[in-house]
């Protein structure tokens, strides 16, 4: 493995292996030693550390680093470490060269057909029939009299090849700039990811690429580890290593049981510190990545209509054994591995963009077994576009075939039947030239008919929007999310940080039997109670949470870390106490035990050992939950008196509810003393965190962002329903919702708690029923005390609902690790850039870099703009298509020659495709976009108004062109161009037709700017300089082509009068447009819409046929993003081990993993895998760290007692399927667990 890994060192300016030899002596441990160390796990790892280094401190000593103060931050030292141990950077895959992209563009079928036809035409034009009188071939060769003309026969073929080249270069350039943009986006995402390390005793946030071996990194819940390391201090740390091992159980990490932390794994619970031992290509993930680079089974295919690629890799790990690396879970036994391969192929894995690698986000290998992968559902717009393009393409194919057949039949009958000529051998090349000419005409009709500009328009429009959206604080990770957002009909938003400022402050406190409505002075509180409160808050919060001085004078102090904890620390400072002194007396290493916050506990507790060897527990959590565990409360003089259930109910009514109704979040702080003899059973948490003494209840305010009410008003005006889904108390949530304008007096709305919601949507068996959800969601505006599972159920219920005539398109915001399922399920997932965990960001489509709800409104505006831009382009393109195809078809059938020649058609195609897509796809959005309702999922791309415009303009253009074709020569008093022989010179007649056609398209492009029947088509035209440039540029090139194009373009120069007539007819398009918009669309009942999305039934049938298990098609789609580099790829490591184990016949001793009944076990992002056999997996949610939102304890062996709020009835729920319930487990079973 080691040798292979070095194959990618050439990416580095200096080779860590070689150049570092001299410096390596400075460290008492080598790169190879550290790499070998990271191969060990669990007890083996502990033993290895003890044998080689004594303990972790010994390892730190050898790495010349301090476990407490970290590295010195001396640039020379960091440079040396970088040389010896490498940098934390995985070299990106080389981008495709421009030539490769040109080659890919050449693969277009229509272009290949044109190339072949052009080459045949070229070859034949150089062929001279041997001697003899060519008269025998009849008037067929009529054009051959002029010697010069005969020699010019090659020009048409050459011109076609040249225009094909133009199209190819333009396409390749677009692809190239698209890829460049993605790499830019990628590096932006990479720069955004920072990690906390200790240097010189201070905690710094540094970009992950700057981490070096020897750094002491702070690890906390929700982190995605960027390097390998050894734990040197940990509190209740649990890691999800499924990305490396495929095991869904969370691995408990501790200094004395398993201190090895690996890159690419997720922290699911707890916190700690680790010393970094391997970075970049030397980390476990890097080694695997390098192996993949060394593996030669790479297949690259381009997905034309997407800026993203799907990815899977195959790697030959052992002779005659091929492991398929997919993003599913890896089993630890080779037979299961092989049997699960098919299943894994079917489960299209969650693929995401890396947040950390320098990989350009384009790991573009595609699984060979494509056949077994079920169809992925495209985004709303792409589904409609694909369907439309296929329909148009079929129509074009039929038209072109008919054109060719009619031309050939006419020629054969005219020549051999009517004129009764024999087929002479020497005339064969001339006849073949005719057939080639007919073929080229047919292909040209096809080229014009097929709207290959559609994917280009979509890409340009999306890429342009993505670039601009960055300025509006939307970092788009998946291109199609941008356009889907325009169709959004519902937004399920978090409260904390999105609707509120996430700057929490304690504003009320209940302590010593007194309720203070503002923070009191220390004199009003007994000394004992004050000291207890100060110590409880200072020690029982993450040491990473702190309050720093304001950046500028007069500003607010800076809150670092968890905002709720910062509010409590702020309270300590307001009470004129210093939390830092308390922490210095008892540093983090001296804490005896920490029960970190998770959603099963709904609280955080810290145990400290007092000088007399006894223990004291400090606890904090959501008040109504923690008060149930209190048996006494501090009185005014600081002594404790009993706290009975009825006292608790009174406190809820008189203190907690009034606070909550003011929109405050309530936190209870409590403590308990325990004796050292007998030693408490720390694992028996229920007994330990009980019989507490309540110190205080604090009311924390998180003010609503000032701009949010206006943004929500805009959403409601735009037909988007905003719902708040929060883990907070229902009274708090209702108060905030009213302030935001989500609920208004007089409206008919529902506000409910998670447990109430669950009770109403489930049947007697505890299964979620769509009909029940349908009764609730339309009126639901606030879901309080909700767990991530509730959020997922709600989002799924709204998306799957069919009660409205429009299917709903749902956007969701989330920030905690457990918002992952809901973010995945939603049509568009927004993650918070500031408060969001790495896991949430990976699961999302768009990252809000300012965590602000108003940015979502901007995303809606851009999304609608993308949709409109594409509709504008369609309206324009389809008009050109309809006219060009009909002209070419009828012209060919009546005059045996298309009035528009192949090269001219290609020029028209270029105008339509590339230029028009650039011009129309870059229109900036306006506020007016928010004044109409969303299009929704089922609305057609081409509305009746657009259809009216397409047909109306088509009629005008056809009348003009046919008039010019059949009576043009008399109007302009010129020679007729009809019935010209094979190589006749270009005629003025046909040039006028071509020129008029192009000018009509140019003016129609201005008409196409408006698609909703607006009269002023010039409105805002100067705000889009690209549009003006393209229209004027096209006009200039058209003049050049007509006046100087000559034979290659089949053009003859026109005089000023002819030009003025062409222009006049072109401008007529604008006047005709006004006439069309005067006809009310409602009167034209006969018009049909086009471009509907695929029918849901079609999709479902396909899905069920391909996979017996019912997999939600949107679920399976799961955002075809670039794959997170250490996810699917990391499976190799396990697989290689499995192969080795298999070959060394250890297989018999291996334990068989349980059979996986749920598709989610293969498909789920590791931290969301909640297998049906129900391991105890806590669901965590960071911003509501102290919300204690209702979450289910996923433990199949114990009934779960839920205490939702003050008057909650205790309900017992079993998460395993009762024996009497028949049927296979639903794939959603794990998410639909009763709460």
Automatic annotation (TrEMBL):
<dbReference type="Pfam" id="PF12424">
    <property type="entry name" value="ATP_Ca_trans_C"/>
</dbReference>
<dbReference type="InterPro" id="IPR022141">
    <property type="entry name" value="ATP_Ca_trans_C"/>
</dbReference>
<feature type="coiled-coil region">
    <location>
        <begin position="1097"/>
        <end position="1124"/>
    </location>
</feature>
<feature type="transmembrane region" description="Helical">
    <location>
        <begin position="438"/>
        <end position="464"/>
    </location>
</feature>
<keyword id="KW-0106">Calcium</keyword>
<keyword id="KW-0175">Coiled coil</keyword>
<dbReference type="InterPro" id="IPR018303">
    <property type="entry name" value="ATPase_P-typ_P_site"/>
</dbReference>
<dbReference type="InterPro" id="IPR044492">
    <property type="entry name" value="P_typ_ATPase_HD_dom"/>
</dbReference>
<keyword id="KW-0112">Calmodulin-binding</keyword>
<protein>
    <recommendedName>
        <fullName>Calcium-transporting ATPase</fullName>
        <ecNumber>7.2.2.10</ecNumber>
    </recommendedName>
</protein>
<keyword id="KW-1003">Cell membrane</keyword>
<feature type="domain" description="Cation-transporting P-type ATPase N-terminal">
    <location>
        <begin position="50"/>
        <end position="126"/>
    </location>
</feature>
<dbReference type="GO" id="GO:0005516">
    <property type="term" value="F:calmodulin binding"/>
</dbReference>
<dbReference type="GO" id="GO:0016887">
    <property type="term" value="F:ATP hydrolysis activity"/>
</dbReference>
<dbReference type="GO" id="GO:0030165">
    <property type="term" value="F:PDZ domain binding"/>
</dbReference>
<dbReference type="InterPro" id="IPR023298">
    <property type="entry name" value="ATPase_P-typ_TM_dom_sf"/>
</dbReference>
<dbReference type="InterPro" id="IPR001757">
    <property type="entry name" value="P_typ_ATPase"/>
</dbReference>
<keyword id="KW-0813">Transport</keyword>
<keyword id="KW-0406">Ion transport</keyword>
<dbReference type="GO" id="GO:0005524">
    <property type="term" value="F:ATP binding"/>
</dbReference>
<dbReference type="Pfam" id="PF00690">
    <property type="entry name" value="Cation_ATPase_N"/>
</dbReference>
<feature type="transmembrane region" description="Helical">
    <location>
        <begin position="950"/>
        <end position="968"/>
    </location>
</feature>
<keyword id="KW-0812">Transmembrane</keyword>
<dbReference type="InterPro" id="IPR023214">
    <property type="entry name" value="HAD_sf"/>
</dbReference>
<keyword id="KW-1278">Translocase</keyword>
<feature type="transmembrane region" description="Helical">
    <location>
        <begin position="1026"/>
        <end position="1046"/>
    </location>
</feature>
<keyword id="KW-0547">Nucleotide-binding</keyword>
<dbReference type="InterPro" id="IPR006408">
    <property type="entry name" value="P-type_ATPase_IIB"/>
</dbReference>
<dbReference type="Pfam" id="PF13246">
    <property type="entry name" value="Cation_ATPase"/>
</dbReference>
<keyword id="KW-0067">ATP-binding</keyword>
<dbReference type="InterPro" id="IPR006068">
    <property type="entry name" value="ATPase_P-typ_cation-transptr_C"/>
</dbReference>
<keyword id="KW-0109">Calcium transport</keyword>
<dbReference type="Pfam" id="PF00122">
    <property type="entry name" value="E1-E2_ATPase"/>
</dbReference>
<dbReference type="InterPro" id="IPR004014">
    <property type="entry name" value="ATPase_P-typ_cation-transptr_N"/>
</dbReference>
<feature type="transmembrane region" description="Helical">
    <location>
        <begin position="397"/>
        <end position="418"/>
    </location>
</feature>
<dbReference type="InterPro" id="IPR023299">
    <property type="entry name" value="ATPase_P-typ_cyto_dom_N"/>
</dbReference>
<dbReference type="InterPro" id="IPR059000">
    <property type="entry name" value="ATPase_P-type_domA"/>
</dbReference>
<comment type="function">
    <text>Catalyzes the hydrolysis of ATP coupled with the transport of calcium.</text>
</comment>
<dbReference type="InterPro" id="IPR036412">
    <property type="entry name" value="HAD-like_sf"/>
</dbReference>
<keyword id="KW-0472">Membrane</keyword>
<dbReference type="GO" id="GO:0005886">
    <property type="term" value="C:plasma membrane"/>
</dbReference>
<keyword id="KW-0460">Magnesium</keyword>
């Amino acid at each position: 493995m080691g040798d292979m890994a070095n194959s990618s060192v050439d990416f580095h300016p200096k080779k860590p292996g070689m150049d570092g030899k001299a410096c390596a002596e400075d460290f008492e441990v080598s790169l190879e030693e550290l790499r070998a160390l990271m191969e060990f796990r669990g007890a083996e790892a502990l033993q290895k550390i003890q044998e080689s280094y004594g303990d972790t401190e010994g390892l730190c000593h050898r790495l010349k680093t301090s476990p407490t103060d970290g590295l010195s931050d001396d640039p020379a030292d960091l440079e040396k470490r970088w040389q010896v141990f490498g940098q934390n950077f995985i070299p990106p895959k080389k981008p495709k060269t421009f030539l490769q992209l040109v080659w890919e563009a050449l693969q277009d079928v229509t272009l290949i057909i044109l190339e072949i036809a052009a080459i045949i035409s070229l070859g034949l034009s150089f062929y001279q029939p041997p001697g003899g009188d060519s008269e025998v071939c009849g008037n067929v060769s009529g054009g051959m009299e002029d010697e010069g003309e005969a020699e010019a026969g090659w020009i048409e073929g050459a011109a076609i090849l040249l225009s094909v080249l133009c199209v190819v270069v333009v396409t390749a350039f677009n692809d190239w700039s698209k890829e460049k943009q993605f790499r830019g986006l990628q590096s932006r995402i990479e720069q955004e990811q920072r990690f906390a390390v200790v240097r010189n005793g201070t905690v710094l946030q540094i970009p992950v690429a700057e981490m070096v071996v020897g750094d002491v990194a702070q690890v906390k819940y929700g982190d995605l580890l960027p390097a390998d390391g050894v734990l040197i201090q940990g509190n209740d740390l649990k890691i999800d290593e499924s990305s490396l091992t495929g095991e869904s159980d969370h691995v408990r990490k501790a200094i004395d049981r398993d201190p090895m932390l690996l890159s690419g794994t997720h922290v699911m619970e707890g916190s700690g510190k680790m010393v970094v031992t391997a970075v970049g290509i030397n980390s476990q993930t890097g080694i695997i990545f390098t192996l993949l680079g060394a593996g030669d089974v790479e297949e690259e295919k381009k997905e034309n209509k997407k800026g993203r690629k799907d990815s899977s890799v195959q790697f030959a790990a052992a002779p005659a054994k091929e492991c398929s690396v997919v993003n599913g879970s890896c089993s630890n036994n080779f037979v299961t591995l092989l049997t699960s391969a098919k299943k894994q192929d079917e489960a299209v894995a969650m693929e995401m963009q890396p947040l950390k690698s320098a990989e350009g986000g384009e790991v573009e290998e595609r699984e060979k077994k494509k056949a077994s992968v079920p169809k992925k559902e495209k985004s709303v717009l792409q589904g409609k576009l694909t369907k439309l393009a296929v329909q148009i393409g079929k129509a074009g194919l039929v038209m072109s075939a008919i054109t060719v057949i009619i031309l050939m039949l006419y020629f054969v009958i005219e020549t051999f039947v009517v004129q009764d000529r024999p087929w002479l051998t020497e005339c064969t090349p001339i006849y073949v030239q005719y057939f080639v000419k007919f073929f080229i005409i047919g292909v040209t009709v096809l080229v014009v008919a097929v709207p290959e500009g559609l994917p280009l328009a979509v890409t340009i429009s999306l890429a342009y929007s993505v670039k601009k959206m960055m300025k509006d604080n939307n970092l788009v990770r998946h291109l199609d999310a941008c356009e889907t957002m325009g169709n959004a009909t519902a937004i399920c938003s978090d409260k904390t940080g999105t609707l509120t400022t996430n700057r929490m402050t304690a504003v009320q406190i209940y302590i010593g039997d007194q309720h203070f409505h503002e923070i009191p002075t220390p004199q009003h509180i007994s000394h004992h109670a004050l000291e207890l409160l100060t110590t409880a808050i200072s020690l029982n919060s993450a040491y990473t949470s702190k309050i720093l001085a304001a950046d500028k004078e007069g500003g607010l102090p800076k809150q670092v870390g968890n905002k709720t904890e910062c509010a409590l620390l702020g309270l300590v400072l307001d009470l004129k106490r210093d939390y830092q002194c308390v922490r210095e007396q008892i540093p983090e290493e001296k804490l005896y035990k920490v029960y970190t916050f998770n959603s099963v506990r709904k609280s955080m507790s810290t145990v400290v050992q007092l000088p007399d060897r006894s223990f004291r527990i400090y606890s904090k959590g959501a008040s109504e939950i923690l008060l149930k565990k209190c048996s006494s409360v501090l009185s005014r003089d600081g002594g404790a008196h009993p706290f009975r259930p009825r006292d608790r109910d009174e406190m809820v009514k008189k203190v907690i509810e009034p606070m909550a109704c003011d929109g405050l979040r309530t936190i209870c702080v409590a403590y308990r003393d325990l004796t050292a003899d007998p030693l408490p059973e720390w694992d028996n948490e229920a007994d330990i965190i009980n019989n507490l003494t309540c110190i205080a209840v604090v009311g924390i305010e998180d003010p609503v962002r000032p701009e949010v009410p206006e943004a929500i008003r805009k959403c409601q005006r735009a037909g988007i329903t905003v719902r708040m889904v929060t883990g907070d108390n229902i009274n708090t949530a209702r108060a905030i919702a009213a302030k935001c304008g989500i609920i208004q007096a007089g409206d008919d709305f529902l506000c409910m708690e998670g447990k109430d919601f669950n009770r109403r949507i489930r049947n007697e068996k505890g299964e979620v029923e769509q009909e029940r959800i349908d009764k609730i969601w339309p009126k639901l505006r606030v879901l309080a005390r909700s767990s991530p599972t509730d959020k997922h159920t709600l989002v799924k219920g709204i998306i799957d609902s069919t009660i409205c005539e429009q299917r709903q398109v749902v956007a969701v915001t989330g920030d905690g690790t457990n918002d992952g399922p809901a973010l995945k399920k939603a049509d568009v997932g927004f993650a918070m850039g500031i408060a969001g965990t790495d896991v949430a960001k990976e699961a999302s489509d768009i990252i809000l870099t300012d965590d602000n709800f108003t940015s979502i409104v901007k995303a809606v505006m851009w999304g609608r703009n993308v949709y409109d831009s594409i509709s504008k382009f369609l309206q324009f393109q389809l008009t050109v298509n309809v006219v060009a195809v009909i002209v070419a078809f009828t012209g060919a059938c009546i005059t045996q020659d298309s009035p528009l020649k192949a090269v001219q058609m290609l020029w028209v195609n270029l105008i339509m495709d590339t230029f028009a897509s650039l011009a129309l796809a870059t229109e900036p959005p306006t506020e007016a976009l928010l004044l109409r309702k969303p299009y929704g999922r089922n609305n057609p791309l081409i509305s009746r108004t657009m259809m009216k415009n397409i047909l109306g303009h088509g009629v005008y253009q056809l009348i003009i062109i046919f008039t010019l074709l059949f009576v043009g020569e008399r109007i302009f008093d010129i020679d007729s161009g009809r019935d010209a022989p094979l190589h006749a010179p270009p005629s003025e007649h046909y040039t006028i037709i071509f020129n008029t056609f192009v000018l009509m398209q140019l003016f129609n492009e201005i008409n196409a700017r408006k698609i909703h029947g607006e009269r002023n088509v010039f409105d805002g035209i100067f705000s889009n300089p690209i549009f003006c440039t393209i229209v004027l540029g096209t006009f200039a090139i058209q003049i050049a082509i007509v006046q100087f194009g000559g034979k290659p373009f089949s053009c003859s120069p026109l005089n000023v009068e002819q030009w003025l007539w062409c222009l006049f007819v072109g401008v007529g398009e604008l006047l005709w447009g006004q006439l069309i918009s005067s006809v009310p669309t409602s009167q034209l009942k006969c018009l049909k819409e086009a471009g509907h999305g695929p029918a849901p039934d079609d999709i479902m049938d396909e899905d069920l046929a391909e996979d017996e298990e019912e997999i939600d098609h949107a679920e399976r789609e799961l955002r075809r993003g670039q794959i997170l580099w250490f996810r699917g790829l990391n499976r190799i490591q396990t697989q290689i081990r499995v192969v080795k184990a298999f070959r060394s016949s250890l297989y018999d001793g291996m334990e068989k993993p349980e059979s996986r009944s749920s598709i989610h076990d293969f498909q789920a992002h590791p931290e969301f895998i909640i297998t049906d056999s129900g391991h105890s997996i806590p669901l965590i949610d960071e911003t509501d760290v102290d919300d204690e939102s209702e979450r289910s304890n996923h433990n199949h062996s114990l009934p779960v007692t839920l205490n939702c709020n003050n008057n909650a009835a205790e309900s017992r729920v079993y998460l395993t399927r009762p024996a009497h319930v028949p049927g296979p487990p639903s794939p959603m079973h794990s998410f639909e667990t009763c709460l």
